[in-house]
């Protein structure tokens, strides 16, 4: 079958729509039909035939998405893109049964999907890189508690590295900025980033490194390869917009706290850290690498 003709960089074509819906419906029990664990007829969801089938499908899609076909070879490349589209749809629509299954998270998502995402997260092919960003964004939304370590690695070793790299392409930098803007629009996710990583004695200062990276991009310290003056200005503006989103989210989060003091202190500390980074770089001449 394959992905069909499609329309540019969109999802699977109408011919592949039936396949997509069929596969996604396997994973969305408990959400689309408003059912609970009774959707799985066995004693335990992890021991059911449905779970076994779901796991095998998910694993096969992960392996297919991790392949590295030449974009000039249409059929293998279409198969890779279709697998990535299906994984994205599955993650977006997965029901609560699988989402809270430790076996599914550990054996399928952590072992196979994260490995595929590591390979695609550094791809020079724009369509592959953009899809990998979308998949990662969905992981942050649905699995940030279960995949704290893995998400931290993706932030620090891939996306923030691309943001600070002189060798990353303009499209890669732009997609990373879009990712960060999306993540930072959710006040709780933003504060969780600071609490779970920067406040962890053994963790990586992801919030601080993100703020520093955005500052360098806004100052033009890391110009993307092949960037025209207009492109460079657009990237700078995008970084400044991300700064604005961060500040608005922290203010909104504090405004919704009511009488809670501990979370407010965490948000205030995050805001202070962002301000301190700006002051340090102003005093120290840009924070040298």
Question: Could you please describe the fold and organization of this structure?
Answer:
With 289 residues, this protein is mainly α. It is 69% helix and 0% strand. The chain is built from twelve helices and no strands. It has helices at 14-27, 49-66, 74-93, 96-99, 102-120, 126-143, 148-164, 170-184, 187-198, 206-218, 229-255, 262-284. Helix 1 (14-27) crosses helix 3, helix 3 (74-93) runs parallel beside helix 6 and helix 9 (187-198) crosses helix 11 (229-255). The longest helix is centred in the last third of the chain and has 27 residues, at 229-255. The chain is globular and about 55 Å long. The termini are far apart.
Describe the structure concisely.
Helix content is 69%, strand content 0%. By secondary structure, the chain is mainly alpha-helical.
Q: Can you count the helices?
A: 12
Rg, rounded, reads 21 Å
What pattern of helices and strands is seen along the backbone? HHHHHHHHHHHH
Shape call: globular
The share of residues in extended strands comes to under 5%
Q: What's the count of strands?
A: 0
Question: How much helix, percentage-wise, in residues?
Answer: 55-70%
Class per helix and strand makeup: mainly alpha
Mean pLDDT, as a whole number?
80
Sheet with the most strands, sense and barrel status: none
